[in-house]
Specification:
The chain is an alpha+beta fold. Helix content is 46%, strand content 14%. Strands 3-4-5 form a three-stranded antiparallel sheet. The chain has a three-stranded antiparallel sheet with strand order 7-6-8, with no helix packed on it. It starts with 8 loop residues before the first helix and ends with a strand.
């Protein structure tokens, strides 16, 4: 990765503070000081300046700092001036309708691809974790490989050298020679695949709303727009626990690739999904005796569960073992096979 020195140091520190808050959410002064590697007095002055300009707010109860919605306003203004969105919108809507998949419109932005528009799938209930305005590195995404495949090799190598190459998941390619093999495959086939190089897999829940059941690979399907419209009309969805067959099918797909599994399950207090995962682990151990399948009852759900998944990923990136990661997050390993 190339290192270009910013001629105005205070500007660099201000924008690093904004980026840090954007990536991590609410943070205390000491947390920011540690993350930015700056003393607290310097960070405090930067925050006061950003508060004065309405880009940052401080919670009066927790004293933590977070970005204001003024940042969103800037983003919306940029997107509203992008004529490519208006031109491409009818085509990506048609593509989504014909394929039944979520379609993204992205634009090359230096060493990244930035999502500038998105049409949710009308029939497929499995959602990609993506949002308009988000940037993703070219080297670890399917869309990135598709963009790079149209460039000369010298340009690809230049972008690779400018990128901060890191092992985001166990599938992330971190050697340039291996990456170029993927580019050649993309050029040969005419399409690029996203192989969980940037995100980890999920085990989806079926749900019932208005008397109809929906789920991955299950007909009928419902768009996100229709789902929230029904909720606004007063209809409440009910989720179904992950059953044994679903857990086994998902786990087996990873075990066949020679991978071990850590599954952070929805709390057993509200769902039997954790029990299904435990039973799947027991049965699959006979089929894959050399693999480790770890199931954890997180005792939490929804947002808190997502935060634990994020923390587990961070622990792995930091080189922590499973036991060290669970201990740090105060999680008991309830079933290890």
């Amino acid at each position: 990765m190339t290192d270009t020195k910013n001629p105005i140091q205070v500007s660099e520190r201000i924008f690093h503070t904004i980026e840090c808050l954007a990536q991590n959410g609410s943070m205390g002064l000491q947390e920011l000081s540690t993350a930015l590697d700056l003393n607290k007095s310097t960070v405090h002055r930067i925050l006061n300046s950003l508060i004065c300009m309405d880009y940052v707010r401080q919670d009066p109860e927790t004293a933590k700092y977070s970005l204001s919605f003024k940042i969103c306003g800037l983003s919306n203004q940029i997107l509203s001036q992008n004529s490519m969105i208006d031109i491409a919108r009818p085509f990506i809507k048609e593509l989504s309708a014909n394929s039944g998949e979520t379609v993204h419109l992205v634009q090359l932005d230096g060493i990244n691809a930035t999502y500038i528009d998105k049409v949710e799938a009308s029939r497929n209930s499995v959602r990609m974790i993506s949002m308009v305005g988000k940037s993703i590195p070219l080297y670890c995404s399917g869309v990135g490989k598709a963009i790079l495949a149209d460039m000369p090799d010298a340009k690809i190598e230049s972008i690779w050298k400018q990128s901060f190459i890191q092992q985001l998941t166990e599938h992330t390619v971190t050697r340039f020679v291996d990456f170029m093999n993927l580019i050649e495959e993309t050029r040969r086939t005419g399409y690029a695949l996203d192989n969980e190089e940037n995100e980890i897999g999920v085990l989806s829940l079926y749900y019932t709303i208005d008397g109809v059941t929906y789920g991955p690979g299950h007909e009928p399907q419902m768009s996100a727009e229709d789902f929230y419209a029904k909720m606004r009309a007063g209809m409440m969805p009910k989720t179904q626990q992950v059953n044994l067959d679903q857990a086994m099918e998902t786990f087996r797909s990873y075990l066949k690739q020679g991978k071990d599994i850590l599954h952070l399950a929805l709390t057993s207090a509200v769902s039997g999904s954790c029990n299904s995962a435990m039973m799947a682990a027991r049965e699959l151990k006979e089929e894959f005796p050399e693999r480790t399948i770890t199931v954890i009852d997180t005792l939490v759900g929804t947002l808190a569960q997502g935060m634990l998944v994020e923390r587990a990923v961070r622990m792995k990136k930091a080189g922590k073992t499973l036991e060290q990661g669970c201990s740090s997050a105060h999680l008991p390993v309830c079933n290890r096979r």
